[in-house]
């Protein structure tokens, strides 16, 4: 269970990082202090069920999400995204 309280900006950033292919769960843990299971719970809570299922199917077993820390938080080609609106519940 996610027992830490995050503001909307932090929740948006966690969701954004979880959707990024090259951002590992280890990096999210380093920046926000929550592990893979807590990220999954947050995504389940904040997203529409269909979007959550699509995300889970996408990241399950993906080596880039479960790899070791690479020291990079962003891909060189990554666009700056603000006000993340990826299928969030209102």
Fold and architecture overview:
Helix 1 crosses helix 3. Helices cover 51% and strands 0% of the residues. The protein contains five helices and no strands. The chain is globular and about 30 Å long. The protein is mainly α. It has a domain at 8-61.
Describe this structure in a few short sentences.
This protein is mainly alpha-helical and 90 residues long.
C-alpha end-to-end distance: 21 Å
Strand content: under 5%
Broad shape? globular
H/E element sequence: HHHHH
Q: What is the averaged pLDDT score?
A: 78
Structural class: mainly alpha
**How many strands, what sense, and barrel or not for the largest sheet?**
none
**Low-confidence sequence ranges:** none
Q: How many beta-strand runs?
A: 0
> Helical segment tally?
5
* Radius of gyration of CA atoms, rounded to a whole number: 12 Å
Helix content: 40-55%
Descriptive labels:
90 residues; mainly alpha; 5 helices
């Amino acid at each position: 269970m996610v027992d830490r309280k995050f503001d909307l900006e932090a929740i948006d950033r966690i969701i954004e990082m979880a959707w990024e292919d090259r951002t590992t769960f280890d990096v999210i843990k380093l920046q926000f202090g929550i592990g893979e299971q807590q990220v999954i719970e947050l995504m389940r809570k904040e997203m529409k069920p269909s979007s959550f299922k699509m995300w889970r199917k996408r990241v399950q077993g993906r080596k880039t999400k479960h790899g070791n820390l690479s020291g990079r938080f962003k891909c060189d080609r990554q666009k700056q995204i603000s006000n993340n609106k990826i299928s969030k519940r209102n």
